[in-house]
Amino acid sequence: MITRLATTVGAKYQNAAGAVDGFYLDGRFSGKREEKGADITLDREAGGSFFAIYASSYSNSENEQYDKKKRDILDKIHDDMRYTDKKIDQEINDLADCAVNVSGQMTLGDNGVKQPYFAGLIVKDAEIAAVTLGRGCAYLYRNDILYPLTEDEYPLKAVDTHGRKVPNLYVYSAGTAATIRYSNIARLQQDDCFILCSREVMDTIGQENMLQLLYAAEDQADSVGMVKELMDEKAPGVPYQYMIGFVEDLLADKDVKTVIKKAATPTVYEANDNNFGNQQLDTNAAPVNMKPIDDFDDSYDDYEHTGSSKGLIIVASIFACLLAVLAAFLIWVQFFNEGNFPSWVPLFGSSDAAKETSATSPVNVTLEPTTSAAPTTKETTAATTTAATTTAAKKKHPDKVKIRAGQALVQLIQEVYKDYHLDGDQQAAALKALIKANPDKITNNGNNYYAGDELVIPDIDDIVNGNPTATTAGTTATTAKKN
């Protein structure tokens, strides 16, 4: 699978004691041009990608030797994802090594000393996995829900943008091994967003404001601008990093074979005098429970691919048998039944007795006297009722609908009135009519509503024509009764 990602990184840096901030944007390494901040967008199609934000204690912006070392470590992960057949579950251990080697030593330093952190995410064949360390955070924004990819310490409520409860909020988090936090392997969907940020962003903006921000943003670059405004307003002196990638499209790659796989056991690190630069593998440590997400889709695709050819053969065989039976029947009619179809054949079939009856039997016609009297009240009411019934029969939408979890009101309008092909103005009018028709279930000007509630659906004539047929029919009926 080829993934098209539009990714934007926004950052604000300050010269301070301790670790030095930086980022890696799928091959783009932060350098001297980004000493004070960054605002960069990358739009790319690729089978594999690598993104990271970090703060490194190994070097400062003036030490080119350590910068080159960090870049070599980051480039290796990027090259493995882009140019090799290495699978994402095989790369997780290398990503953990990269987090440790890039971030460097953690100390018990003063409050004014910045501690190192790391948040990295790899993409391969439309699947993602993330690793975080320290104050690095990684999230997946999907269906108005902010899912944590790793179990960071920021407290999240299990709710979506609209305040509705969300089950299994930590479904994409795998666990921790020493200081490394791992994610499960998750399959991407179109319109997904991944987010890598420093903890300062979530502490300043908060979950509720972040959800509203992501819901209102037009694209990933717009969300970066909103984060910058909020950080400058609420925490003007606090450095931060915020990277967001938007899944624009998922393209099939014929050379990629889809298989069901499990993530490899991650490398487990032990602290050694607070020095994480020279850490060794602890083979006796319990493995982290890491599992792929949505592997059922892979197995179903394989099943569907292998079974489709058999289905086509069966359908073709049945169709050939039907053609043979039809040909034999036409030959029998032409040569053995003198070209006459039997009476049990629709449209063409007729019996000789029926032909004889229709030829000899007279047609009795009874003429009713015609009067020029005006129609009675009953006739007028019956005609009006017939017209109203015909109009009601043409209605192509239900009277009431239960709203589903995660379904926005605009999506509900599009589904209910899909047969009417409403334009933008008509959809806006339909939304207003829906809110007006359900004042007890939709409040706060359409911002508050709950899944499972049964909503009354307004008549389409109230929206499209502005002169509802039902009201007109009722007025006509009332007038007829008065006459």
Can you tell me about this structure?
There is one protein chain. The protein is 37% helix and 20% strand. The protein is α+β, with helices and mostly antiparallel strands and 483 residues long. It has three domains: 2-293, 4-Layer Sandwich (Phosphatase 2c, domain 1), CATH 3.60.40.10; 296-358; 377-482, no CATH class. Strands 2, 3, 5, 6, 7, 10, 11 and 12 form an eight-stranded antiparallel β-sheet that branches. Strands 4-1-14-13-8-9 form a six-stranded antiparallel β-sheet. It has a two-stranded antiparallel ribbon with strand order 15-16. Helix 4 (207-216) runs antiparallel to helix 5 (220-234) and helix 9 (409-416) crosses helix 10. The longest helix is centred in the middle third of the chain and has 42 residues, at 295-336. 29% of the residues are buried. Mean pLDDT is 77; it is low at 255-287, 295-301, 353-393 and 467-483.
